[in-house]
Here is the input.
Amino acid sequence: MYALTAVSFFTDVSSEMIYPLLPAFLTLTLGASASFIGAIEGAAETTAALLKLASGWWSDRVQRRKPLVLAGYTIASIMRPLVAIAQSATQVLVIRVADRVGKGIRNSPRDALIADSVDSSIRGKAFGFNRTGDHTGAVLGPLIAFALVQWLHKDVRTVFWWAVVPGVLAVLTVLFGVREVSRRRDTAAAPIDLSQPLSARFWAVLGVIFLFTLGNSTDAFLLLRAQQLGIPVALAPILWAFLHVVKSLSSVPGGTLSDRVGRKPLLVAGWLLYAAVYFAFGRASSAWHAWALFGIYGIFFGLTEGTERALVTDIVPAARRGTAFGWYNLTIGLGALPASVIFGALWDHSGSRIAFDFGAALALAASLGIAVVPIVVPPRPSLTRDGSS
Here is the structure.
């Protein structure tokens, strides 16, 4: 778990040196529209999601996670900095999709490996801890980008090239720091057929998550909205770092709270908070509103990211965790493309307020949906003094 958290940290340093500058790079340098930005991010995430299903299933079948995790981080670390040589928005699309191929290969096996390595009583905390590493890297990445642009006077393309350094560190950490977890003999299964049905409650949970995802468009639109509200492009990395500070500080408490009070209350609270933030973004009118809303938005991640993953682990058999995370990630990815495309189209044709109201409405509907889904978690095994069951 700790090594994988370090990998997430380095990876997000790399990716977040690029991401907060990407919307301005696409619109101001390459002339892309809001709709095309939505298409880029939606296509990238959908591609990743399709591969997450396949990689999760395969890691269950061969009962090995690390090779897929290593391959995924390597591909992403090679492709991500190539944005520096892009001369058109279409080229960025191709590079982003290739980057997300790596993410698609690694994520489901990685999440299953985390679940394999911890006791059921601390799953929420474990996934929250991993997200903390992820978001801490996402704090440092934008700060490095800001320093390179503002203090060292490097251009955006040079910043993109520097992102290769933490990417290499992530790959080396996987190679030398991550170990395969030997699953218990009673939960290790023979190769299984993907058509073997999972529980009805699992599919019901995925259905509600898909509904929420349809209103959860790329955060690139939040950065564009911040620019509308008067945040200079040079400060975009700082605003993005601020968001991830809040994410990092709230991830472990949110995951731990879900271990204590249950997954459903945390998801309901988080999605209601998301709805409120999106509703407010559509009506914001000054730069300080952007700062405040980005901070509140970070709490939503702390409440929901680790909680969702822990819930998936709770309601599926241990031998099928890779496959279950594959379906979970596929659900999010299939919703990501229409979510970002619809949001971008609404923004272009009806204005940002209507687009944000659309996202808020679907988040509200999803919070009501998860509240009525029956979720009965199997009892956790009692632990001996030394932590074994």
In short: The domain at 2-176+200-372 is CATH 1.20.1250.20 (Growth Hormone; Chain: A;).
